[in-house]
Amino acid sequence: MEDTLHKIVTPARLIRVTLLFSLAFLLVAFIAVLVGPSEIAPLEVLRSLFRDRHAAETAASDTERMILFSIRIPRVLFAGIVGAALSTAGVVYQALLRNPLADPYILGVSGGASAGAVAGILLGASTVPFGTPLLAFAGALAATFLVFGTARKNASLSSNTLILAGVIVNAFTTALVFFFLSISSSNEVHNVVFWIMGDLGIASGKDIGIIALVLLGTFILIYAHGRSLNLLVVGEETALRLGVSVESTKKILLVAASILTAAAVSLCGTIGFVGLIIPHMMRMLLGADHRLLLPASLLFGGAFLIAADTLARVLLAPTELPVGVVTAFCGAPFFIYLLRRRA
């Protein structure tokens, strides 16, 4: 990654790239709103979106408006925000751990969230508002801070120890999930497996609002440390000489990325490969300057997950695939290519 840091990021280039990826995001989102078992003409969608309520009632039927505003648009927004969250977290983990294989789940977030969610499903927490997501979020944070506590040595965090601790915690929580599955009924097993593979069809307005606020707050914090991330990629000693408080910066960014990942996973389950391949693709395309890499990854990650979720909805319609299956099918071949290219 270091050899691409020389690419200069000017305000003009940042604006151009951000506008380009924003347009791509909006185009993918608009196509996703159109696609589904019930066909809706593009002009009808535009009229419903941009005209007043009375005009919208004359432009589209009650059924079409319900499909648009109650199902498709919330789901597209949810997929875009979750994809943006996972790709942003992936950028941070790959930079701080200096490991190209790092993804948002490497520090045990997914395992802890899965264990909490499975326990919530089996205990009937879904009958309580935000019951299952809260247990999943608590499990994700507990696993993450257990990893931090295990890896902490003399007030510092070692990247290698963090990764090893994350692997151990993930293995333990995976064993917990399998234990819960072994004592559950067949109907509960189906719900658990679908959640683990990623389910964006359960989005509500409150879910979208929560994850949007978490993404906004953590992204602002992470982007404010863009220059520090650039220096940490080059080396911690170099960053320290240039005035970066290495340990405190690492802790702040790791906690921010972990909270962002925990919020995403707790609301929609585990969706693999988004936080792994999107940062790589953007780094290959734009370079490794995080002042440009972060907004590009956020927008492209959102567009990618919207497209993947659209495929999950229509490939076997009326049956719906877990979106994690689609991202794995798309991400695994690219990652194999990337590994061979690096070799």
Helices and strands in order:
Elements: H1 11-34, H2 42-50, H3 53-59, H4 62-97, H5 109-123, H6 131-151, E1 152-153, E2 156-157, H7 159-182, H8 186-196, H9 205-224, H10 226-234, H11 236-241, H12 246-268, H13 274-286, H14 290-314, H15 323-342
Antiparallel strand pairs: 1-2
Helix pairs in contact: 1-4, 1-14, 2-3, 4-9, 4-12, 4-13, 4-14, 5-6, 5-7, 5-8, 5-12, 6-7, 6-12, 9-12, 13-14, 14-15
Quick tags:
mainly alpha; ABC transporter involved in vitamin B12 uptake, BtuC; two-stranded antiparallel ribbon; 1% strand
Characterization of this structure:
The chain has a single domain, classed as Orthogonal Bundle (ABC transporter involved in vitamin B12 uptake, BtuC). The protein has 15 helices and 2 strands. Helix 5 runs antiparallel to helix 8. Strands 1-2 form a two-stranded antiparallel ribbon. The radius of gyration is 21 Å and the shape is globular. By secondary structure, the protein is mainly α.
Going by CATH, the architecture would be Orthogonal Bundle
Distance N to C terminus: 15 Å
Please identify which CATH superfamily we are dealing with. Answer: ABC transporter involved in vitamin B12 uptake, BtuC
What is the H-and-E element order? HHHHHHEEHHHHHHHHH
Instruction: Tell me, rounded to a whole number, the average pLDDT.
Output: 84
- Major pleated sheet: 2 strands, antiparallel
Q: Order of strands in the sheet with the most strands?
A: 1-2
Shape: globular
CATH fold node name? ABC transporter involved in vitamin B12 uptake, BtuC
Sequence stretches where pLDDT stays below 50 over 5 or more residues: 1-6
Q: Decide which structural class fits the backbone.
A: mainly alpha
